[in-house]
Amino acid sequence: MLKILLFGKNGQLGAELLRSLAVFGEVIAPERGQSGGDLANAADIRGAVLRVMPDIVVNAAAFTDVDAAEGQPDIARAINADAPALLARSCGETGAWFVHYSSDYVFDGSGGTRPWTEDDPARPLNAYGLSKLLGDQSVMQNCARHLIFRTSWLYAAHGENFAKKILRRLRKDGQLTVVNDQFGVPTAANWLADLTVVALARVLADERLAGLYHAAAAGETSWHGYACFVVEQAQKTGLLAGVPINAVRPVASTAYEQTARRPMNSRLDTSKLRRTFGLNPPDWQVGVANVVEELA
């Protein structure tokens, strides 16, 4: 039985990992405020690794408020870059595997409609994306036994996410505007957590499979298309009875005020993931429909 140290257990992904990782053995997941639970405290997190001496460290904690990161870049960097770097070094010293999660926001959104591959140059547009990119680089430099999964538009039935914001706003105001020129794919946290277990089982048997992988659902949509699908599914379950789909109005990014710039093209090429692990990501609509039904 293996020993797993999990950071970020209360987040959307962390909560799912707490379930999925149990197949390997004992999962130790410190709470924020407990010893080892503060990723902004370098001595605290290093001490947790050395105290637990896990076989696997999984980091699902992150500073994810993209707009807030513009005004707090030091905090975003401390949590998204410095902490993973320290965890990676600690894993390198102890021989543990390190699993880390990254973002489509490491890319600048150019390239038209072509999905980004793992080998494409990363040029983030905002402080959040830069902090995630620095984290990726630090993990790769400091721990050979690593798995990094770059994902996009993560959601779950618990925690805060785009779909829940849409439902809340429509219940309150009856209508809203959503950008229709930024493209990517919503990805379910439970699928990513289950994928992590499959990938870990493979790399534990063959260390040559370590590395960086793009992990996202199949297909693509805009934020506006995503919102309309959420409304359509919510109508079926009775969550938004009487709210028409046209209550979600499309708007260009240039007309929508946000502190941080967003990439227009967040499509991720998952060919390497599918080829290496023999997995076919589900269509994004499947997971979103399941979450809306669960919320209902």
Describe the structure.
Helix 5 links the parallel strand 4 and strand 5. The protein has ten helices and twelve strands. The mean pLDDT is 91. It has helices spanning 12-20, 42-52, 66-71, 73-94, 127-142, 162-173, 189-205, 223-237, 271-277, 284-295; strands at 2-7, 25-28, 56-59, 97-103, 146-151, 154-155, 176-179, 183-184, 187-188, 211-214, 221-222, 248-251. It has a six-stranded parallel beta sheet, sandwiched between helices. The protein has a two-stranded parallel sheet with strand order 6-9. It is globular and about 55 Å long. The chain has a domain at 2-160 and 186-218 and 269-282: NAD(P)-binding Rossmann-like Domain (Rossmann fold, 3-Layer(aba) Sandwich), CATH 3.40.50.720. Helix 1 (12-20) crosses helix 7 (189-205), helix 2 packs parallel to helix 4 (73-94) and helix 8 (223-237) crosses helix 10 (284-295). Helices cover 43% and strands 16% of the residues. With 296 residues, it is α/β, with parallel strands linked by helices.
CATH fold category name of the domain at 2-160 and 186-218 and 269-282: Rossmann fold
The secondary-structure class comes to alpha/beta
Query: What is the helix/strand order?
Result: EHEHEHHEHEEHEEEHEEHEHH
Q: Specify the overall morphology.
A: globular
Beta-strand percentage range? 15-25%
Name of the CATH superfamily of the domain at 2-160 and 186-218 and 269-282: NAD(P)-binding Rossmann-like Domain
Number of helices: 10
Helix content: 40-55%
N-to-C CA distance: 38 Å
Q: Could you give the order of strands across the largest sheet? A: 2-1-3-4-5-10
Question: What is Rg?
Answer: 19 Å
Query: What is the CATH architecture assignment of the domain at 2-160 and 186-218 and 269-282?
Result: 3-Layer(aba) Sandwich
Give the strand tally: 12
Low-pLDDT stretches: none
| Largest sheet properties | 6 strands, parallel
What is the CATH top level name of the domain at 2-160 and 186-218 and 269-282?
Alpha Beta
Task: Please tell me the overall pLDDT.
Answer: 91
Domain RmlD-like substrate binding: 3-295
Enzyme class: oxidoreductase
Function: Catalyzes the reduction of dTDP-6-deoxy-L-lyxo-4-hexulose to yield dTDP-L-rhamnose.
Family: Belongs to the dTDP-4-dehydrorhamnose reductase family.
